[in-house]
Amino acid sequence: MVRLITHNMLACHVKNCTKDNFPLVFSEVELVIRESEANYDFLRRFMPKLDWPALVDTARSLGDETLPDDQPEEWTDEQLQALHHVLMEMHVEEGNMTCRGCGHVYPISNGIPNMLLAEHEVGR
Amino acid sequence: MLTSSFVCPATVSRPSKVSKMPLYVLRVCMEHATFRIPSLLSVAQLYGFSIKFISEDADRGIVVIELDDDEDVDKLLERGTLILPAGEKLPPDPYAKPSSDLRLTMLSTASRLLAQADSYDQLHAYLHEHPEGLRPYLDKNFKFFVEGINHRIPSSRQRKSIDAFEQHGYTGKAAMKDPEVEFIIYEEYDLNEAHSHEKSHRLERDGQFRQVYFCVKMGESRARPLIQAHSVKTRSYYGNTSMEAEMGFLMAGQALPAPGKIVYDPFAGTGSMLYSCAHWGATVLGSDIDGRQMRGKGQGKGYVPGVYRAADQYGVRDRVLDCMTFDITRGPWRRGGWLDAVVTDPPYYRPPSRPYELVNLTRDLVLFARWILVPGGRLVFFLPTVSEDYDAVDVPVVEGMRELKWGEGSVQDFGKWGRRLITMEKTADDDGARPSFDDSEAVEVDSGAKIPGHFQFRERYHEKFTPRLQPSSSAASPGPET
Ligand SMILES: [Zn+2]
């Protein structure tokens, strides 16, 4: 159940991979929507930590078009609900996350992504 | 009063008022005494009220505190894991025989103090002189409860103690069911005299209490029953490293978990820490180098990993943001400055991917927290240590992080070794640099320098903690000679 809020905080960490290592690109995705109660305070507090373009692109790649291109300065409840849906309710249960920089594939199974690297890939 | 370097907003003294602040009595369990004050302070800090300790001796089953008002008591009852609720079998009270004859029908939790004295004569005299405290309750249907702390009071004398309160002019009726007010009388005895189970000794000692407290009951702990509810024994998924529920909740409490906050365990294992933090409303994240710990045995499409099954059982599945497999020292986090707390029990007991000296692991953990926490965020972790070698220098000193320590700190003592619960706060306003986790540099032990108590902990654990040779004869804590 990789959620997009988590995905937005993850980058490829293969050794010497510093270009285009974020965001990771989803493929072969099995998406599950689980409704949950929104906490707008939480969302407002977290907004400055988000990489907005990456979030919008990723949401669109998964078929959700509700987010605007630019991060709103003033949020309506409707926009907050859309953000909540994208960040918290979309769960990637199966699939891959691929680095655009080095091509490394991080597989997701049963909702748990495997981000372990082989010994020759580690280091920054 | 308290001597401590721990300056917490909760202890900042208020301007003195003419009217005395209400005092409250907390009946607390004797276990984990060094966790008491930090736990209570954390609840106070989380909800933003002040708490002043009138008595805080570690050897007492009672803590007397001063609060601004009754509402604050409710917060303590919500989260006070160490506060005893009614009907709980007494924990290791040395006086308690391991048999069923010690059945307390009611153990108080939090109550408002009406009077406190050395003797019943003094207590009643005080109540006559200050009738205003008792007056609002006199016409209510009431119930009395008498409890000896570190002592069992014969029922005949319990009766006598209750009857003596008639002199204050009660007009309400005694009501065993649904009383409007419950009075509690605590007789507090010295712990060190509580060894004998002999009936003769008990009778001799009866009435020789140190202090008697007369209180109105306010409520019972709602946190204490959680320990039973979250017991590893009934958990749908757990491993041999799962933390016992009580310690899990004590640890979680130090992270100030609350709705809207994100708490992260980078050594999540089977997820014990995640459930207790999530219970108090936090959103939680976990990672572990060993994915099998989080998944459990099954696999294939549709399989629900163990951590999510247990989270379901506790009704907190939606608060588990994600669980991931990776090595925190090679972690994929994109940026710092976004987590409210890092809570973890570092894996000194299982082999990591590569040799990782615990001294380095601890230092790296603090550096990692310095980077990834929001300003004011907390790092809470266990530091295993060989008791005789421990010294305060063992907690890594990192710019931008400070230890919140009460007295000698919170220790779970297992004899030859123990583990200290370390609580640190991020004082820096910036994220700073991403930590390198570069553990290539050896830990240098100069002759004459203090060796941290957790140095080579894993090796020493397997050597059963035979004392190590101190580099200097002037070491502050000489071990037993071999
Ligand atoms: Zn890459």
Automatic annotation (TrEMBL), chain A:
SUPFAM superfamilies: Trm112p-like (SSF158997). Belongs to the TRM112 family. One of its GO terms (molecular function) is protein heterodimerization activity. It comes from the Eukaryota. InterPro entries: Trm112, Trm112-like. The lineage of its organism: Eukaryota, Fungi, Dikarya, Basidiomycota, Agaricomycotina. One of its GO terms (biological process) is tRNA methylation. Interacts with TRM9. It holds the Pfam family Trm112p. This is Multifunctional methyltransferase subunit TRM112.
From TrEMBL, chain B:
GO terms for molecular function: methyltransferase activity; nucleic acid binding. Keywords: Methyltransferase, Transferase. SUPFAM superfamilies: S-adenosyl-L-methionine-dependent methyltransferases. Pfam families: Tmrp11_N. The keyword Transferase applies. One of its GO terms (biological process) is methylation. Residues 428-437 have a biased composition (Basic and acidic residues). InterPro entries: DNA_methylase_N6_adenine_CS, SAM-dependent_MTases_sf, TRMT11_N. Residues 428-451 are annotated as: Disordered. Residues 24-82, 112-195 form the tRNA (guanine(10)-N(2))-methyltransferase TRMT11 N-terminal domain. GO terms for cellular component: cytoplasm. This is S-adenosyl-L-methionine-dependent methyltransferase. It comes from Dioszegia hungarica. The lineage of its organism: Eukaryota, Fungi, Dikarya, Basidiomycota, Agaricomycotina.
